[in-house]
Amino acid sequence: MDRLASQGVAVIRSSPTGWEITSLIDTGACAPEIRRIVRAVRLTMAIRRKLKAPVLSAFLNFALPPGSEAHSRLSSYLRKEDEHDMEVDTATSSLQAPAKHPSPELEIYCYLLVLIFLIDQKKYNEAKACSSTSIARLKNVDRRTVDVLAARLYFYYSLSYELTGDLAEIRGNLLVLHRIATLRHDELGQDTLLNLLLRNYLHYNLYDQAEKLRSKAQRFEAHLNQQFCRYLFYLDKIRTIQLKYTDAKEALLQAARKAPRCSPGFSSLMQQVGYHCSIIAR
Predict the structure, then answer these.
(1) Residue range 258-268: average pLDDT?
(2) Smallest Cα–Cα separation from 193: which of 133, 147, 141, 125?
(3) pLDDT tens profile 20-33
(4) CA-CA distance, 250 to 62, in Å (whole number)?
(5) CA–CA dist 277, 282 (Å, integer)
(6) Residue of 78, 173, 179, 211 with fewest CB within 10 Å of its CB?
(7) Beta carbons of 57 and 78 less than 8 angstroms apart
(8) What is the average pLDDT score of the chain?
(9) 3-state SS string over the chain?
């Protein structure tokens, strides 16, 4: 058992990204510097593929005080696969000094990390419960340094309910969250939630409600290019149903031009759909 435990510790320590992320979040929360939070979110993708239950449990023990409400809730979503995992968790937690008073940013990040892990493991029901808990906690936090983390939580919150076919259940809550983001001047949150609401309406073919929301909601085109591309994609769907094919084509072509280079699939899809719209518009 000691050999297995030491191997678990070695796995965690061999990837310093987790500790770097913690440092970035704590520094960004104290400064405050949102760019550090943004970098922490980007680095999360580097550890996403390597994330295992024992490693994640050890990270929670390091970032959150054991026995705290957040630690207890998040740990309950991590099922121990076997007795060896329990030994690894015990050994790693004994070698790490947990934070006595974690920042709200770090706590929200832990919710995000566990939620991503549950979705990747296809534990969608647990992901739904975790996302609902994280959103309830997020409503009580009003800090601009949390906005980047909140936007990611909103996305995975909607995704977890979409994967279980219960997307309609959270429509009212998404509207409430959009209102809260507007009152808090959270531009990134407003853009993200607007797109999630449009996706929610269009998923159930509620085009009139989607257009009413789109026409009244405030947008921030220069804030995040990815969100603006998603907005243009949903705008194309609305314009197509309205038989405004020229406007639909323009929206798609604009989305294709603004799409990040790291998403060639999205750009290709936009060009294909835009080609069909141009044929119909003739």
Answers:
(1) 62
(2) 147
(3) 888 888 888 877 77
(4) 50
(5) 9
(6) 179
(7) yes
(8) 81
(9) CHHHHHHHHHHHHCCCHHHHHHHHHHHHHHCCCHHHHHHHHHHHHHHHCCCCHHHHHHHHHHHCCCCCHHHHHHHHCCCCCCHHHHHHHHHHHHCCCCCCCCCHHHHHHHHHHHHHHHHHCCCHHHHHHHHHHHHHHHCCCCCHHHHHHHHHHHHHHHHHHHHCCCHHHHHHHHHHHHHHHHHCCCHHHHHHHHHHHHHHHHHCCCHHHHHHHHHHCCCCCCCCHHHHHHHHHHHHHHHHHCCCHHHHHHHHHHHHHHCCCCCHHHHHHHHHHHHHHHHHHC
Calpha distance 128→248 (Å, rounded)? 34
Please check the confidence at residue 44 and state whether its pLDDT lies above 60.
yes
Both tokens of 122, joined, read: 């296809």
What's the predicted TM-score (pTM) here?
A: 0.84
pLDDT (tens digit per residue) in 113-157: 999 999 999 999 999 999 999 999 999 998 888 999 999 999 999
The answer to whether residue 167 scores a pLDDT higher than 50 is: yes
What is the total residue count of the chain?
A: 282
CA-to-CA distance for 132 and 25, rounded, in angstroms?
A: 23
